[in-house]
Specification:
alpha+beta; OB fold (Dihydrolipoamide Acetyltransferase, E2P); three-stranded antiparallel β-sheet; 10 strands; about 25% strand; rod-shaped
């Protein structure tokens, strides 16, 4: 049994396989059958009057599959728990937004839910966020394009050519007499953010 498991595990390690959990369970089941065939052959050859090979195989299959079920189940649960812990770590890490300047120097780290909006102004971007209930801003020397992927991956959406906004902080969308849209945020002393017609529908659907 040990020799068979070593052979199948070496195959599993060296073959370029991309298995999900369902396929891995199938691999383990096939491994048990493979082991049973060779264990049965060994028992059939050394035992005195064991009956036919298939008689031995039927008993061996039951023994081997039940024997391997316990360690394989423990292994599968351990892997699942490890993966869940990694997912939680990745989610927690992804929730922190890291802003770099044009020289790739880290300048600001904040959680995504504290971001109110980000606006572009020439070669700078203004990051408005909350800290202990107070609105703060940080001017970063970089382009809006440099934070596109960061914003989109953390729930911020573009509402204007020069603005990203956090939809969770939008209190209401307005349209004035001239047909210009704007977003009022849920913090006092924060300007209304312009919303282009191009992005209005997408923002409205997020609220």
């Amino acid at each position: 049994m040990l020799a068979c498991v070593i052979v199948t595990r070496l195959l599993y390690y060296f073959l370029p396989l991309k298995l999900n959990y369902a396929l891995y369970i199938g691999w383990c089941f096939a491994e048990g059958i493979f082991t049973s065939f060779f264990v049965s052959l060994y028992l059939w050859l050394i035992k005195v009057d064991p009956g036919t090979y298939f008689d031995v195989l039927s008993r061996t299959l039951e023994f081997v599959l039940f024997t391997l079920a316990i360690p394989y189940s423990i292994l599968a649960l351990s892997i699942k728990i490890y993966d869940l812990q990694n997912v939680k770590t990745e989610v927690a890490s992804a929730a922190r937004m890291r802003f770099y300047d044009v020289n790739r120097n880290l300048k600001l780290v904040v959680t995504a839910d504290t971001i109110l909006y980000i606006g572009a102004e020439e070669n700078y971007i203004n990051i408005f966020y909350t800290d202990n209930g107070k609105v703060k801003s940080y001017v970063l020397r970089n382009s809006m394009r440099s934070v596109d992927e960061l914003c989109l991956s953390n729930g911020l959406i573009r509402c204007h050519r020069s603005f990203y906004i956090n939809p969770t902080h939008v209190r209401v969308l307005r349209k004035d007499k001239e047909g210009i849209f704007s977003a009022e945020l849920d913090m006092d002393d924060v300007r209304d953010i312009p919303v282009s017609k191009t992005y209005y529908k997408n923002l409205a659907e997020m609220l």
